[in-house]
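To whoever is on call:

I kicked off a structure prediction for a single chain this morning and the downstream step that reads the tokens threw a length-mismatch warning. I double-checked the sequence; it's 248 residues and nothing unusual in it as far as I can see. Pasting both halves so you can look.
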Amino acid sequence: MSTSAQSRADLVRHSVYEFVLATVLLFAVVSLVRWLAVSGSPLAIGNPDALFAVAGTAVAALIAGLMYSPLGRRSGGHLHPGVTVFLWSSGLFPGRAVLPYVAAQLAGSVAGTALAALVWGEAVRRIGYAAVHPAPGTGAVELFLIEGAALAAVFVAVTLVMTKPALEAFIPAVIGIGVGVIIATLGTVTGASVNPARVFGPALLSGTYEHFWNYMITPVVAPALVGLAHRAWRRRRDTALSPASAEA
């Protein structure tokens, strides 16, 4: 097999892994909402703050677990279009792989949500397929700024870890914990989407499109800006080090 064909085969295989990971993620998230939010469930939590705190903790562990899983290690465990765009804008991921990865993640979002509806039936329909909603009165600009700033903070933390090779193994934990904290603290305000793949399937199957484009775009714009800043910083660092390397 030629190098080009091998490269295409790897991209297809890794995109399939991303599809599977996103499917598992959305099935688990919708199932979590089904058990925690449906009245009458033995695990139902009536207090919204407590509900999002529990959900944030569970999702943090889930994301880290999927990224550390064998499939996550093979594909990079993006699970999130913003992660893919962040790595591409940082110069660490090939541009030709961005669309296949994002398409796989969104397709997995639909598949995972549909699978949860198939397994749990009417309970999932009662919660609107776990579609994300902001608190009443939360405007589009406010939603964009709050979610964008929160997610940018997570990716800044990721870039700081990436600068220390000895800490790179902790990146999945950093992302998982960061997302979990956002869900726990902002869930009652913005709905704490923070991932287009979290929004896409539930919105599509429920027909709920309030703030849809905001939820889809904000979690991509924020990481992209952090990625561009990271790439610029690396270039400046390499330029600053090159004269010293030449003299050595």
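Update from on-call: the warning came from a stale cache, not from the record. Cleared it. Sanity check on the structure: The chain has one domain: 3-239.
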